[in-house]
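Query form — protein Niban apoptosis regulator 2b

QUESTION: What is the three-dimensional structure of this chain?
INPUT:
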Amino acid sequence: KVRFDVEGGGGPQAQLLHRKIPLENKSIFSGSLFQYLEESKKWRNRFLFVPDSYNINCYDNKASHDRGLHPKGTINCAGYKVLTSMEQYLDLISNSLPDVKAKAGSSPFLKCASQFPLVLWHPYARHYYFCVATEKEQQKWLAVLQDCVRHANDGLSEENKVQTHYGTWDMMCGVAPQILSNLVMEGLLPELRELISPRLKGKLHERQRNWMLISDAVYSLVQGQCQTQYEAVLQGCEAARCSLEASIRTDMDQIITSKEHVTNKIKAVVLPKAEKLLKVSIQPYISSILDALMEPTSRGFSEVRDVFFRELVDMSKNTLNEGTKETVAQHMEKISMLAFHPVKMNSCYEKVEHLSLEGLQQRFDVSSPSVFVQRAQILMREQMDDAVYTFEQILHQSLESLGTDELCKTIQRCQDRVIKKFDYDSSTVRKRFFREALLQIFIPYMLKQLSPSCGSELPRFQELIFEDFSRFILVENIFEEVVLHSVMKDIMMAVKEAAVQRRHNLYRDSIVLSNSDPSLHLLGESPSIDWAKEVGGATRRTKQVVSMIQVEDPSITLDPLGGNDAIPEGDEEEPEKEGGGEENVGGKASPELNEPASPKAPANPPALSNGSVLKEEDEEEDAKPQEQDAGEEKDTGVVKDAGEVKDAGEDSQPMQDEQPPSKPEESEEALPPAPPSEILSGATGTDPETAPRVPSAFPPPPHDDSGFQSPTSQGAGGAEAAALVSSGGGGAATTAADSSTGEQ
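ANSWER: The structure tokens for Niban apoptosis regulator 2b are given below.
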């Protein structure tokens, strides 16, 4: 690390700006659905809140969240999989115990209350069972939950340029203590299963349930010990860090000279064997593996570019009609969090889901392509946010000195400038991703093949290292570096040839200019732009990225089994006067929801919870009295449908796709701000008995999400098109323009 700090790193400089705190004052999603509680054997209505940490906070109802009460529990999604059918779940459960198989069509210990389940499954930790009333809701929740999993799995910081983790282990999920816990469980669980399985008694579902409880309890113990020991190691390292760095900086030249001397000696022994292995077992497969990686990844990044481009085209079209800076700011508020909208990003994520590395599992011990899929998806999200943030900064700077007559031309110039920079950075990021992926596949295989013959010779090289430098120069590390550099030359050549062919829109490194736009990088030091404030509204303290789900027909109810008393009937209660964490037309958010995590209760328990901290209290309590507490608002018995998102002030104006584009804009902007008492997040602010019901007001499933646009920009946009789910769920439409814009 010290050498890297002193000498610096090479490589092309990013052309796009990078947002330092992407989700500042933002939450991801919140809403109600039904959860099966194993302790009471009942389905109960639950309110889930997803803050910027992507940990899922569970509450009895929305009123509990708004009052700042402690969540019932927090789910850390690292290592989980999101399932949308009980058949998928049964297949995984059937493998949990040897010689115990569940019959097809049977449920282990619960019956789903609807046709649209959502199950969070983990190989070691407890499972979570949810369900919703419609397929639209299921697809939106699926996208949100998969984004939580994707974010939690990406726990190892990319900022560290020294630590590198090679391999394709699919449980390399979460932060370091979680990964260590998974490693322990991988070896411990088979022993426990062999010991405990014969002693489990009762019916099939009882044995499965008891085994999962045992596994979860053991996993919690392992996590606690790993967390404690890991923190102790870190503290020891930090205590010695200052003196070590001082010694290294003082003797840097001698240490480097000594290391290079030992490296040359080890190369003489290792390189002949490594080159023979490369020629026979590695080189013939590099190009085919690279093609398998490049096709879906490049399609995904191309879709990121298209989604970003379409959003800007929509804004340009609407600016033609109402060419004011306020209109532009309203659209920019909607676009600013595009990268963190899992529904709109689904079409991008789905492209890379098709990545397949068939045939590599046995040859190179590739356990799963999921590690590459999720890494590519994280990079797509980062590139999208970099493009959006760069466009924001350039456009904001341009708007300060221009009149309204040149708005469209200004937007076009900024768009072309950012798209060009995106193409450069996309090429650089993808090439780095391809190189790292190939190393992750080949390095573990090569070390496994070379260690038996080379490992016995390594100790003698330790004698060549001065005792004072033995803490800094490790023979085992040098051996791995030699192996890495031996294959890196072939990998670099393969990626370079792919760039020359231009098959995947890759640029050669020589044409990517470094620091080609110094004035732009000065803008990168500017704070994020509050577009709501730009249009004269109050600054919003907390805004929700993904919009709430709305109910098309309030008469839809679930038919829960084993606990009807826990399900409030939707038509017995007034709809909540909530807006899903969105703001009202006046731009003021609910005072209770202004806090992403209430000051009274920490929103995020320790990162190692992995869902294990969820504790159900008062399971037998009746849900209706809770929801009628002291004049609080009542949760409807049905999770809202993934249709149009209306803020409190605009719910009485349902939008129709058939309306001319200008109508929603005029009616929306004419609405007065809603009173603060109506700005709770959740549902509509209009009684269903008096509100106009227009069945055709909601677009078909592909257009189920209006995103995180501001209330005033909603009218200009209408219904946003949803995109595809990150791991195979959520329909097949690409993100499109607002419905009214499309008609224009």
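ADDITIONAL NOTE: The two ends are 56 Å apart (CA to CA).
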